[in-house]
Design brief:
This protein is an alpha+beta fold. It contains 22 helices and nine strands.
């Protein structure tokens, strides 16, 4: 275009060009000199740093982003370098969004990955993608549902996440992850976060722990380690990442370590603090529990629960309820000592609180066990098998101290619901029971598969655990509706909660 606009049409070879140029340069010696505006179509927008950031925020730290144009190469597109110990802290849902500057292009690719009847409603794809990019809030929630919802409004008919054939999305529009060790050496690289977690292996990433000699101590029996901050930053391979100091229960003491996820640090620290409190109050606790009402009867009822140490579980539970219940985790020795002092005063109240829960819990558990033993008809063997599985889930090892108090308070009702379910069977309610059971099994299978995956990859997801207890409440609503539920639950609400669970 530049030369067409300046060189006449009668110039068609070297000789005519030289002849014309001699004359043209008499009036303008720079007639064929280009300026910046001639070869730069438009200046780079001022929003470039926001559209193509240098780093991806991760808690209080940031991971470096690298941009490469190399079609067909593994590095083509955007590469995020992540230390192996921070791999579990990444949010795969955030990775789906890529970066703002490529979002419009990614939406265009997603439109082209739709079935033809839907694509026709969204042409031209580039214009539709521009509209979507302007209306969707980048980085908020899950990307695919947000895009599907926006496309549904434009198309005038539903577009679901399942309509996208993601295999048709070019790889350069999927975040490339480069996993490095603490020296910066590349351990693995790829665009599938779950696959990378498996490939890297436990020998590299540990079990949710971040090794650091400053935060590695065993045999702690009292708060003598200074402050316990919520998070710190450590350097791995020249990259600053967040780590989460935590205490870990060792049975007769606690340890000080670093976790790779805040939820893991919080859960482990709660268990460990309970152990510290119980060790401090061991004498008073045992005295209080000696006078526990119906102690012998409770011990007898507890025998139906496999591998259950009633006394130790009660000591830990009372210590927790006395010292802090749902209070925030203490971060300093001063806060810890204050909780100890308050716990000493609250000990009798905590015993009463635990008695008020444990007595009906063990009573209804025992009654459910007896009712199950009496229900041996081959006619409903599949149903009794389901109930045994349910009770095994509820009565997992250390269930009394491992279950959050909110849900532990629901256990008496769960066992009552089992008794009512068995009672209804004798009234011939088999078809309705099996229909409900089939629905429940579908959700339990979803939970089990995701839980195994999360355990394998050291992920702690509160949304998945909430989903687990919603299933339990759904059982009550199906088999013993008159008992009521802790939360409003239905198939639709279960599906909605499942959407919040980490992939």
């Amino acid at each position: 275009d530049f030369y067409d606009a300046r060189i006449p049409h009668h110039v068609y070879d070297v000789n005519t060009l030289v002849k014309w140029l001699k004359k043209a340069e008499r009036s303008d010696r720079r007639v064929l000199f280009m300026s910046e505006s001639d070869f730069v179509r438009e200046r780079l927008p001022s929003s470039l740093p926001e559209d193509f950031p240098d780093t991806l925020p991760l808690d209080d730290a940031a991971l470096p982003l690298e941009y490469t144009f190399a079609p067909g190469d593994q590095r083509d597109g955007v590469t995020l370098t992540v230390p192996v110990e921070a791999l579990g802290s990444l949010d795969p849902q955030r990775l789906e969004w890529l970066v703002p500057g490529l979002f419009e292009e990614k939406v265009t690719a997603l439109i082209r990955a739709l079935p033809k009847p839907l694509r026709r409603l969204l042409i031209p794809a580039a214009d539709t993608a521009r509209t979507v990019a302007q209306t969707v809030r980048f980085g908020e929630g899950r990307m695919l549902p947000a895009v599907a919802s926006a496309l549904s409004r434009i198309a005038g008919r539903p577009v679901s996440v399942d309509d996208f054939d993601l295999s048709k999305v070019p790889p350069e529009l999927v975040m490339n992850l480069r996993v490095v060790d603490r020296s910066g050496n590349v351990l693995a690289e790829g665009r599938d976060w779950e696959d990378l977690r498996r490939r890297v292996g436990v020998e590299h990433r540990g079990s949710g722990m971040i090794a650091d000699p400053r935060w590695n101590r065993e045999g702690i029996t009292d708060w003598d380690f200074g402050e316990l901050p919520e998070s710190i930053t450590v350097s791995r391979g020249g990259i600053r990442i967040c780590a989460y100091p935590m205490l870990v229960d060792r049975g007769d003491s606690v340890a000080l370590q670093l976790a790779d996820q805040p939820h893991r640090a919080e859960n482990e620290t709660r268990f460990a603090l309970r152990r510290l409190f119980a060790m401090k109050f061991r004498g008073p606790l045992r005295t209080q529990l000696e006078w526990f009402p119906d102690r012998q009867k409770l011990s007898m009822q507890a025998t139906v629960i496999p591998d259950f140490d009633l006394r130790e579980e009660l000591e830990l539970l009372v210590a927790e309820r006395a010292c802090w219940a749902e209070a925030a985790i203490p971060r300093t020795e001063e806060e810890y000592r204050r909780l100890l002092a308050e716990g000493k005063k609250r000990l009798p109240v905590a015993v009463q609180e635990v008695v008020a829960l444990v007595r009906p819990l063990l009573e209804h558990c025992y009654q459910a066990h007896l009712a199950l033993e009496k229900s041996q008809s081959r006619q409903w063997e599949d149903i009794t098998t389901d109930i045994r599985r349910q009770m095994a889930r509820l009565l997992r090892p250390h269930f009394l101290t491992a279950t959050p108090w909110r849900w532990l308070r629901c256990f008496p009702r769960y066992f009552q619901a089992i008794c009512l379910r068995l009672e209804a069977l004798r009234g011939g309610n088999l078809f309705r029971d099996r229909e409900a059971m089939e629905t429940i099994h579908r959700y339990e299978e979803m939970y089990d598969q995701r839980k195994r995956l999360h355990d394998e990859m050291d992920i702690v997801d509160p949304e998945l655990e909430h989903f687990r207890w919603m299933i339990e409440e759904f059982r009550v609503s199906m088999f013993a509706q008159r008992l009521g539920t802790e939360v409003t639950v239905s198939v639709k609400r279960l599906d909605r909660q499942w959407e919040k669970v980490r992939r």
